[in-house]
Automatic annotation (TrEMBL):
Residues passing through the membrane, by range: none
Similarity-based family: Belongs to the short-chain dehydrogenases/reductases (SDR) family.
Name of protein: SDR family NAD(P)-dependent oxidoreductase
InterPro entries: NAD(P)-bd_dom_sf, Sc_DH/Rdtase_CS, SDR_fam
Annotated source species: Actinomadura fibrosa
Alphabetical list of PANTHER family matching this protein: DEHYDROGENASE/REDUCTASE SDR FAMILY MEMBER 7B, DEHYDROGENASE_REDUCTASE SDR FAMILY MEMBER 7B
Length: 232
């Protein structure tokens, strides 16, 4: 039985990917900040899970060290971790400002959630991932590599996450490290950013592509859903 830890799994891509892996029989540890939304997601995921799969839901903020310790502990209790999905993230300042107007005091919180929390979780579970030749999937964004007006604060944090992933891949040859761009998705986060979320594909499309990524285990590197979908 394989075990995955997925952060930000109460909605959007995290919830959709958790459903995909549960259908394949994975044991899951999932988190989100809102306990009620996470509980509803866990109930739904259990309803589609293959026989023998189990879902442990732990509410909390990935930026909190105590919560991260609880997640790592739950993964250890499940017998070890095969996959860490760093999906939880924050936009930061909303409405999203141009860099000339970006409140600098808001950025430490963005980096705490989008960069430092993923690194801390990686550090906490890395010995087990090495032993099981597991994988890390860091969810990035095209905002990490494109110059979109008003996406500077979020984009710079995702660029940092990508470089973190790039270096980790070089340092950990026994662990697959993927930093992946899901593209636009019809999610509350995209709507909160002021974009036309209704015109975007559902997160289930990206989740299906990432399920194939995990199953096929390609070399460490940067992947886009658009490319993964075209490679079927």
């Amino acid at each position: 039985m394989k075990t995955a830890l997925i952060t930000g799994a109460s909605r959007g891509l995290g919830r959709a990917l958790a459903r995909e892996l549960a259908r394949d029989g994975w044991t899951l540890v999932i988190d989100a900040r809102g306990a009620a939304a996470l509980g509803a997601a866990a109930a739904e995921i259990r309803g589609v899970a293959a026989p023998g799969a189990s879902i442990t839901a732990i509410a909390g903020d990935v930026a909190d060290a105590g919560h991260r310790a609880a997640l790592a502990g739950a993964a250890a209790e499940a017998g070890g971790l095969d996959l860490l999905v760093n999906n939880a993230s924050t936009l930061g300042t909303t409405p999203m400002p141009r860099l000339a107007d970006q409140p600098v005091q808001d950025l430490p919180g963005v980096f705490a959630t989008n960069v430092l929390a993923p690194l801390a979780l990686i550090q906490a579970v890395l010995p087990g991932l090495r032993a099981r030749r597991g994988a890390v999937l860091n969810i990035s964004s095209d905002a990490a590599v494109e110059g979109y007006p008003a996406w500077g604060g979020y984009g710079m944090s995702k660029a940092a996450l990508e470089q973190l992933s790039n270096v980790l891949a070089a340092e950990e040859p026994d662990v697959a490290v993927w930093w992946a761009d899901p593209g636009e998705m019809n999610t509350g986060m995209l709507r909160a950013a002021g974009e036309d979320a209704d015109a975007a594909p559902p997160p289930e499309e990206a989740a299906a592509a990432f399920r194939r990524l995990v199953a096929e285990r390609p070399a460490s590197g940067r992947y886009r859903v658009a490319d993964l979908a075209g490679a079927r």
